[in-house]
């Protein structure tokens, strides 16, 4: 059975296809929804992932899909589906296949140039927003920096929820910066983007709030093969995974206003080490927050401004 033409996404007629009657006709494949999902299962793709992916290809909701088992895909849709389901079977993140990811209420466009933003990172954003409306509320236009912005997730979420913040975001990857800038433009969020090796491009500038989700996986970690589609420079940082965090923490005081906060995301087993690093660097009120999975995920401290 074919769905009514009106529910099909607008696709251009394929070259060579005859047009009969009042409107263009689109060639159908022989692949039904049911067969496409069976194909995904045979390739080892999770059923829910397959349903979301097929719904995306058809421009329909998952609910629609579940009630249209015998709907036949157009040839163009079948081609797209075949390519995407193979990529998913090869382990490519779902977000890269559909080109976007929800983060803190924003739809961000993502590509293999950037880490796929994780829900865990919303812990850091929520903590940042609490500080901006609480302890840091005396700053009417607080200067905020996001170091290693990737898709722009943290910087854009903070700017979106706290428009008075003057947000700077930096990254050492030109491709990531381009992606972040495109997201800012599309979401109409005014964030300044800088190419920089951590603090290097902002020498002499001081911030009320510094945020980073840096790479923190140890080189050689057993989980890395499962992350092979994401950029290596977004993932690993030295033999214990703490090189970037060590650098960010020790160099931070030169870039923070008195009473400023530094918040760092880290691995589930790195909280103790990060607390020690911040305390050794002179931070006070050092604390750790847990993510939605109850793992210690984010550690921060206040810079007293004595040095
Ligand atoms: C774990 S990703 C985080 C991306 C984004 N902030 C997020 O939370 O989804 C780390 C980011 O740090 C960037 N990065 C790695 N080394 C860097 C460096 N030396 N200076 C600046 N950014 C760096 C990577 O390009 C990557 O975008």
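Q: What amino acid sequence fits the structure above?
A:
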């Amino acid at each position: 059975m074919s769905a009514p033409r009106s529910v099909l996404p607008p696709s251009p007629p394929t070259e060579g296809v005859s047009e009969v009657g009042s409107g263009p006709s689109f060639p159908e494949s022989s692949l039904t929804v049911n067969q496409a999902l069976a194909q995904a299962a045979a390739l080892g793709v999770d059923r829910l992932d397959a349903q979301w992916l097929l719904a995306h290809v058809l421009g329909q909701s998952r609910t629609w899909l579940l009630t249209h088992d015998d709907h036949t895909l157009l040839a163009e849709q079948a081609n797209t589906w075949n390519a995407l389901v193979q990529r998913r079977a090869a382990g490519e993140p779902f977000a890269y296949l559909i080109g976007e990811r929800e983060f803190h209420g924003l739809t961000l466009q993502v590509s293999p140039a950037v880490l796929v933003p994780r829900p865990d990172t919303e812990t850091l954003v929520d903590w940042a927003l609490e500080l901006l409306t609480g302890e840091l509320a005396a700053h009417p236009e607080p200067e905020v920096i996001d170091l290693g912005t990737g898709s722009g997730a943290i910087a854009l979420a903070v700017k979106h929820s706290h428009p008075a913040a003057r947000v700077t975001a930096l990254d050492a990857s030109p491709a990531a910066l381009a992606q972040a800038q495109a997201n800012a433009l599309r979401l109409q969020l005014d964030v300044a983007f800088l190419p920089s090796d951590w603090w290097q491009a902002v020498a002499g500038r001081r911030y009320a709030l510094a945020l980073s989700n840096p790479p923190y996986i140890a080189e050689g970690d057993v989980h890395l093969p499962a992350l092979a589609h994401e950029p290596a420079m977004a993932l690993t940082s030295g033999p214990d995974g703490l090189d970037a965090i060590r650098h960010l923490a020790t160099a931070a005081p030169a870039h923070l206003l008195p009473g400023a906060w530094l918040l760092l995301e880290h691995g589930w087993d790195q909280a103790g080490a990060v607390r020690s690093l911040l305390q050794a660097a002179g931070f006070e009120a050092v604390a750790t927050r847990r993510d939605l999975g109850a793992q210690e995920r984010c550690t921060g401290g206040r810079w007293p401004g004595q040095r």
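Q: And what stands out in the fold?
A: Residues 102-302 form a domain with the Rossmann fold fold (CATH 3.40.50.150).
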